[in-house]
Amino acid sequence: MTATAHALVGGAIAAAIPNHPALGITLAALSHPILDMIPHWDFGRGWRQKSKALLFFQAIADLIFGTVITFIFFGKTTDNLYLLMAILASESWDIMQAPYWLFGWKFFPFSTFYNFQHLINKSIKAPWGIITQAVTVTGLFLVLRTIH
Asked: For a tag site, which of 5, 25, 35, 103 has the least CB within 10 Å?
């Protein structure tokens, strides 16, 4: 999934569980591998063929956009520090892979995160991989809205 999709889900979890940050942050972190099991497209697709500069720029732009849009959706209804922590928790799996991709750090813990993600990540081409993300995030929004 894109960083934007992960951030939105992390934010939705925080908004749905406003009085239990420890639970919300934990669920936001656990949401990442679950979401990555759903066939999707993201900027990491074909990362070996991209320059490291392009990969870094795309990842940072996606991360910033996802954080901003999540704050637009949930920033007025959720404690901002809690929201930021849930976003970072939801992104943490990919953040821990970044040194593997960008610097070739093929040692623990970066290789462990890469290997696990590589095992569970289900990737499909655009536009279908974008559609599956939109449907998944929208469905989770609707479900999580009923909790709070």
From this structure: 103
pLDDT category at 50 given cuts 50, 70, 90 is confident
> What SS3 class is residue 31?
helix
Q: CA angle, 51 as apex, 123 and 94 as ends, to 5°?
A: 45
User: Domain residue spans in the chain?
Assistant: 3-92+120-147
And the tokens for 108? Answer: 């623990």
CB 26 within 8 A of CB 44: no
Cα–Cα distance for residue pair 115/128, rounded to 1 Å: 25
For the stretch 58-107, pLDDT in tens is 999 999 999 999 999 999 999 999 999 999 999 999 999 999 988 999 99
Tell me the helices (H) and strands (E) count for the chain, helix number first: 7, 0
